[in-house]
Prior knowledge:
Helix content: 25-40%
Structural class: alpha+beta
Shape: elongated
Low-confidence stretches: 137-153
Oligomer: single chain
Largest sheet: 2 strands, antiparallel
Number of domains: 3
Distance between the termini: 70 Å
Number of strands: 6
Strand content: 15-25%
Amino acid sequence: MRFTAEIRDGKTLWYDRQRVSEFIRSLEGQQVTVTVEKRQELHSARQRGYYRRVILPTLERDGPGYTAEEWHEILKHMFLLTEKDGRVFARSTGTLSKLEYSNYIDKILRWSAIELGVVIEDPRARRETRVCEPSNHRPAILTRGEAVHSEDS
Length: 153
């Protein structure tokens, strides 16, 4: 069982004290192992949104005939398998840290391009584009790293 708490002034402040107490009472008379670790920051809404609004719909539209929810299950079973107490199962994406979610997305993007031939837009690879005014006052489109060129030069 996993519980979340905050350590303040050397004391443990449980977020759901009643649930912790009930669980501990249920273990009366048994030997237990207690592990305490620093909580990892969970993935961001931006990561989850990209997965749900870009990756899954792209696979549903351009992949071989599965719904977005079916793709979600397929991808979890491909890239998020874990073992606990001799059982193998797919982790929930809701439990992934930012780093784990980023790695999950990277694996999907590579696999999709290589195995399915479906290239999914990666927002991290977008090139910044902006409009500026060269000296002759005609708009020019610049992409990061490009020099300004006008038709007069």
